[in-house]
Amino acid sequence: MNDALENEGAALLSRDDSDVDALRGAILQLPIEYREPLIMQVLGGFSVEEIARELSLSASAVLTRLFRARNKLRTLYGLAPAPDCSSSEAPP
Amino acid sequence: MNCEDVRRQIGAEPGVSSEELAQHLKGCPACAEFQLEMVALDAHIRRALEKPPGIARARRRMAAQPRWALAASVLVAAIATLAVWALRTNTTLAHEVVAHVIAEPQSWAAADAVSETELNDVLQKSGLVLDPTPYSVVYARSCWFRGHFVPHLVVRTAHGLATVLILRNEAVATRESFNEDGLSGVIVPSVHGSIAVLAGNSAQLDAVAQQMRIAVRPQQVAK
Question: Are the C-beta atoms of B5 and B29 separated by less than 8 Å?
């Protein structure tokens, strides 16, 4: 991860601890199929391929779930969700 | 690669870059900003899952204060500490329960029910058994908490996941509720110590606590 990019982004999205607490609550309330790959990727450092292997999913299904998980959390931050045009996930 | 493709890629892997993506971002300020937001959001997610409760906040507050304010706040804190001394145990217990749960975020990623053997092993370490409940247990660990091994369970309910700590060595006089670091919780007295239940929302707490109170019992020792 590029630190400069992260710092620039953090300045754009400056939040205090209560927001972080709210975010934690929101992560807990994500459906398990979204929460699980997100935690594996962000906290565990798993690659998409590794997550796919662990969860017996295709890589594109994992990508879709990660995208939707972040999109749900984006709305919590008052940011417009990105368009999600895929109606279903690819099969494993 | 159009804007939609780019945003889907960034939304799935904000930190990953490719030549094609970089090319697009150079000519598209809106997508470049979207990437910055997503990278920042990831940093917040990481922070939310890693941050020990209260510590960062206290440190920042102290650093921002002038010396006289610091002295005054120390005095106020000392008086407040004395004033709440009688309530100290339970307040600290709730805080420590939250801190423990936050320090084990991998418990929230659990999906599959743990085996009966695994669950029994965890309970056995604390000399307990669990009768059937309406919930499936998706995470079970024996955790060191306040000098004892404590069953740390995550159960799946109709409202989502709930964390349960069975605190055989912690007595509380009455039901206590708390809301800290994005987690709602209750600690209820039980015949065998107390039971703490935490979740992202408060809808299910008492129901889970009640079920657990009925289902948890000590192991019978063979004579």
Answer: no
| Cβ–Cβ pairs < 8 A, chains A and B | 144
39-58 in A: which are within 8 Å (CB) of B? 39-44, 48
Chain A residues in contact with B111 by the CB 8 A cut-off are 32, 36
A35 touches chain B (CB under 8 A): yes
Q: CA-based angle B192:B194:B195, to the nearest 5?
A: 115
Sign of CA dihedral B97, B98, B101, B103: negative
Q: Residues A48-58: what's their mean pLDDT?
A: 88
User: B29-50 and A3-12 are packed helices; what angle lies between their axes, rounded to 10 degrees?
Assistant: 90
Q: Can you name the residues that pair with B217 across neighbouring β-strands?
A: B129
Has the ipTM of the complex gone over 0.90? Answer: no
Half-sphere exposure of B123 (CA within 13 A, CB side): 22
pLDDT per residue over B163-209, tens digit each? 999 999 898 888 989 988 778 899 999 888 899 999 877 778 898 99
B12:A9 CB<8 A: no
Instruction: Mark the ranges of chain B whose per-residue pLDDT is less than 70.
Output: 51-91, 221-223
**Burial profile B48-79: b = 16 or more Cβ within 10 angstroms, e = fewer:** bbebebeeebeeeeeeeeeeeeeeeeeeeeee
What pTM was estimated for this model as a whole? Answer: 0.52
d(CA B214, CA B190) in angstroms, rounded, equals 9
Q: Which residues contact B21 (CB under 8 A, 6 or more apart)?
A: B1, B6, B9, B10
Instruction: Note whether B42 and A42 are within 8 A (CB).
Output: yes
Residue B216, H or E segment: strand B216-218
Q: A-chain residues within 8 Å CB-CB of B49? A: 24, 27, 39, 42-43
